[in-house]
Amino acid sequence: MKIWIMRHGEAGFNALTDSQRKLTEAGKRMAYQQGIYLGKQLNNEQNYLDKIIVSPYLRTQETWDEVEKGMQAVGFIPSFANVIETWEGITPSSSPEQVSDYLAFLESEGAKHVLLISHLPLVFDLVQHLTQYQQSVHFYPAVLAEIEWDGMIGKLLTVEKP
Length: 162
Description:
By secondary structure, the protein is α/β, with parallel strands linked by helices. It has a single domain (2-160), classed as Phosphoglycerate mutase-like (Rossmann fold), CATH 3.40.50. It is built from 4 helices and 6 strands. It has helices at 25-45, 58-73, 96-108, 122-130; strands at 2-7, 51-54, 84-86, 113-118, 144-149, 154-160. Strand 5 and strand 6 (154-160) form a beta hairpin. Helix 1 (25-45) packs across helix 2 (58-73). The longest helix is centred in the first third of the chain and has 21 residues, at 25-45.
């Protein structure tokens, strides 16, 4: 299974709660760039996304919107209606063990390509967990890490910075 783990784009701090923080204009551009990168990669490999999992926080939802626009800009235009999922299980303080259990379930259901858009510290912890603490990524805003995971151990393939 290929898993792309992405941190949301740069977000501002003008919100009443953490979950209501919005992307900055720079954050939107970063996410759009990453959508272009991922769309090109999927097109080149003739792949698709079986599942897109996004945190319910506003900045991750906005990140997905921009990623989708970037993917569409390079001609990657499948319908995401049946594969997108907003999940409370990938908010900042969520458990990487719980996420990997869900990924294992998705793999058992036939999923081969999954995009996950979340937050620090979860994205950092999840990469470490999936690679059995052999690899880590510095997740600046909108960084996208690609992992090949066999259900037990993962290997970090690429890290794309906007």
